[in-house]
Amino acid sequence: MGGNQSVPKITKQDRAILDLKLQRDKVKQYQKKIQAVLDREHEIAKQHLAAGQKDRALLALRRRKYQETLLQKTDGQLENLEGLVSTIEFSLVEVSVLHGLKQGNEVLKEIHKELNVESVEKLLEETAEAREYQREIDEMLAHNMTVEDEEAVQAELKELERETLAEQKPAISLPSVPTTQPESEQPEAEEVPATKETEPEQERVPVAA
What is the tally of structural domains in the chain? Predict the structure, then answer.
């Protein structure tokens, strides 16, 4: 199952960087040992001074000074190793960028081959021919269509516009209007007050004296 998996290829540059990093780690471990010796020699010198053994204390300090010299040398070596690792890694990045630029230039060259002067001129000619063909069709339709045909086309265009607007607008359902009024809202019949019919007054005839 796992035999078909691709294994990343380790290049010479990768091996070189790995070796340098291993050397750097060894130098760092050696520095830790030197620092431990420095601390121990310092304690030994203090103990000899406390015991009144000045010569032995001086000897311990001399050994400590020698270890400090070694520590300074390892600092220089460590700095050189780290600088070399950084330089190689940055150079690999530059190589990768240059490789990408090279591929990009090749792609641009291929595109320029396709977009040569002849191809562009041919494309422009085809575009001009298409525009001229469309213009001839427009003129032919304008001269051969009657007024009735033009009116029919305009009416069809308006109908299409209405259909398009109707499709774009969401349908709104309105509540139905009741045909009959509720009993509570029906108007009551007005009661007409009963009037007492009055007889017409008889005309008074004057009596002659």
Answer: 2
